[in-house]
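STRUCTURE:
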């Protein structure tokens, strides 16, 4: 089944600005408002072990889920231009909210740049559903987006789709409060009505939510499957990477605020293996 997000043709992008590396090797840039995109980064790192990767966390403005579309577009365009200037020849918008609000504007700004957006896995969930009912868990901004509405219209016409805003879940991941007993009770309140109504596919419509799986999986038990798209995004990157697929296998981490928290998040989120790809600790960046 083909991935359910748009891409553009590969082309050469020329941009000014200093690069992270001291050579002309191409990189794959991945960005999110904060830590959520690390789930996508991990999948890309696994699929492309030799690629040089740059992860940019806009932690000065996290979360995006409660921001206006205009603000998100401004941030996405600024960060995208920064990544290209750093030497990224492929960019992954590893945030459902940013994809919904700004990926079209990003592609208009840099039409020659291959861009991979991240959208809720409505298409595979609808195809896999046996009950004819699925649910999408997402940020407030994503649940209100026309892009999600269009995604449901195009790919889930034959099933019932419940869309649920999970306010505060992304912030819980950002603060690494993943084992709070109170969250299990909150998550159960969201999930119980969906499961009772017959939903057998639960779409994780925010990249942050992948890190909540240890809490969510026991709650859905054998009644439903949790659906995310990190592996599908990684497969798309393999197809689009071109020369960026072969490099030194390095990883550079940047954050617009508190880079030390981004660094500490890797082992805390079970991604300590990514540290081996780093040549230096996470750094502060402006964009």
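SEQUENCE:
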């Amino acid at each position: 089944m083909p991935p359910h997000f748009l891409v553009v043709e590969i082309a050469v992008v020329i941009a000014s600005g200093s690069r992270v590396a001291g050579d002309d090797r191409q990189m794959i840039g991945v960005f999110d408002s904060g830590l959520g995109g690390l789930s996508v980064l991990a999948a890309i790192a696994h699929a492309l072990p030799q690629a040089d990767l740059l992860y940019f966390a806009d932690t000065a403005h996290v979360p995006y889920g409660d921001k206006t579309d205009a603000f998100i577009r401004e941030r996405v365009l600024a960060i995208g231009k920064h990544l290209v200037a750093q030497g990224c020849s492929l960019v992954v918008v590893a945030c459902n909210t940013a994809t919904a609000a700004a990926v079209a504007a990003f592609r208009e700004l840099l039409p020659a740049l291959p861009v991979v957006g991240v959208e809720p896995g409505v298409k595979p969930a609808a195809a896999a559903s046996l009950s004819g009912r699925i649910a999408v868990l997402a940020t407030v901004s994503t649940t209100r987006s026309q892009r999600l509405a269009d995604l449901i219209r195009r790919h889930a016409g034959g099933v019932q789709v419940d869309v649920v805003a999970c306010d505060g879940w992304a912030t819980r991941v950002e603060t690494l409060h993943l084992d709070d007993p109170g969250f299990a009770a909150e998550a159960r309140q969201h999930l119980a009505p969906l499961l009772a109504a017959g939903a057998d596919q639960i779409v994780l419509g925010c990249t942050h939510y992948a890190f909540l799986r240890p809490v969510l999986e026991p709650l859905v038990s054998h009644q439903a499957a949790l659906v995310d798209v990190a592996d599908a995004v990684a497969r798309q990157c393999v197809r689009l990477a071109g020369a960026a697929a072969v490099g030194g296998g390095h990883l550079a981490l940047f954050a617009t605020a508190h880079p030390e928290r981004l660094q500490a998040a890797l082992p805390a989120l079970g991604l300590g293996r990514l540290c081996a790809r780093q040549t230096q600790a996470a750094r502060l960046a402006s964009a």
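REMARK: Residues 1-23 have pLDDT under 50 and may be disordered.
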